[in-house]
Amino acid sequence: MRRLPGNPFPAPHPPLQIGTALVVKEMRLVLTDDLDGSPGAETVSFALDGSAYEIELSEKNAAALREALAPYIAKARSANRPARTASRRSSGPKTDTAAVRAWAKDSGYEISERGRIPSAVLEAYEAAH
Fold this sequence. Notes:
By secondary structure, the chain is of the alpha+beta class.
């Protein structure tokens, strides 16, 4: 990558030449402490009562927040939860629902053409087979 004169960082995009002028766009992320307006050092994330929060803090204020929370954290249990994944429900061995419905109708059970088959009907079918 090419470096621009007087800039120790590589140019993210080639400079734009407009006539004889060289135009460069530079973006900087500046953190400001949300409590006192001093230069910020980091973004601190925390959660309380089911809500997650983020705040930009200086090193001094970040340390003060951690110090204030330390006695509570020392007595708390971790609530880190694994990412949720789709769970599969197992209803045991797979049953041919068309066969169950046909048997149920022949056996006098009132059963719909679609939807979940009542457990009593499934139990009766399995007992009969």
